[in-house]
Amino acid sequence: MSRRPKLRRAAFLPARVGPKAAEDEEGPVVGDAAGLTLRAMLPNAITAAALCAGLTGIRFAIDGEWSYAILAVVLAGVLDGIDGRIARLLNAQSRFGAELDSLADSLSFGVAPALILFLWSLQDLPRFGWFAALAFAISCALRLARFNARIDVDEQPHKSAGFLTGVPAPVGAGLAFIPFYLWNETGLEIFRNPVVMALWLSVIAVLMISNMATLSWASLRPRKAIRLWLIAFVALAFAALLLEPWWTLAAICITYLALMPYGLVKYGRIKRRRAQEQATVAASAIDAAG
């Protein structure tokens, strides 16, 4: 009597879908033959909500409701930070989710900010203003494409050291809005000047596609002595965000920019230490062979 061989799980069965983790998270992309469960659909629904928020920002900008337009993109950034964590908690990460998340990010943090800022300021400088808006949107798309291309690459010096490569797309959108934050609170027209705005947007575009190491929030490990103080500071910052949202957002973005040189110095130290360790290992191997 012949024994029937065990059937392997069919490769064509549907895989679990869900957004990728954030750029500073690690974890394999997994599959599941169980189909589209509610658990797997939840992270993607949040990603779709973030996309809707970003695109709604464009609608508010067309109507001239600048504050609502900016806040819609900020909301998209909050949702973008949530979906990856939920996907990781639910073990619902996949290539599908990575592609969906990147497409949503490209629209919410590339196209939407570019159009909002063009309508708010850059349209007074039609030719170069539009070029600056295009440069920002294209740089965001290129950054996301570079990230997707490196998902399966094992050797990533920045990520292995706890850093990111360039400024993340949501952060880039927040930085691009700094002139609006300051203009909305001070009323100074210099912050709405199309030449200033075009130069600023170009700088942020360069930072997004640069190869420089930038700090990753997930890699920060505060000392035990300051953790309670840090919790209190975060609570106060949240209260400030509710009471004075524009000043608070400006302060957060400026603090991020101020910490970029520190990140470069810190990464340089790690890189030199790794080079010394590799040189020591190589020297030991040569001595052992000799």
UniProtKB/TrEMBL annotation:
Coiled coil: none annotated. Pfam families: CDP-OH_P_tran_2, CDP-OH_P_transf. The keyword Membrane applies. This is CDP-diacylglycerol---serine O-phosphatidyltransferase. Keywords: Lipid biosynthesis, Lipid metabolism, Membrane, Phospholipid biosynthesis, Phospholipid metabolism, Transferase, Transmembrane, Transmembrane helix. It is a multi-pass membrane protein. InterPro entries: CDP-alcohol_PTase-I, CDP-OH_P_trans, CDP-OH_P_trans_C, CDP-OH_PTrfase_TM_dom, CDP_ALCOHOL_P_TRANSF_CS. The keyword Lipid metabolism applies. The lineage of its organism: Bacteria, Pseudomonadati, Pseudomonadota, Alphaproteobacteria, Sphingomonadales. It comes from Erythrobacter sanguineus. Belongs to the CDP-alcohol phosphatidyltransferase class-I family. The chain crosses the membrane at residues 41-60, 128-149, 161-183, 195-218, 225-243, 249-265. One of its GO terms (biological process) is phospholipid biosynthetic process. Residues 227-261 form the CDP-alcohol phosphatidyltransferase C-terminal domain. PANTHER family: CDP-DIACYLGLYCEROL--GLYCEROL-3-PHOSPHATE 3-PHOSPHATIDYLTRANSFERASE-RELATED (PTHR14269), CDP-DIACYLGLYCEROL--SERINE O-PHOSPHATIDYLTRANSFERASE (PTHR14269:SF61). GO terms for cellular component: membrane. GO terms for molecular function: phosphotransferase activity, for other substituted phosphate groups. It is found in: Membrane.
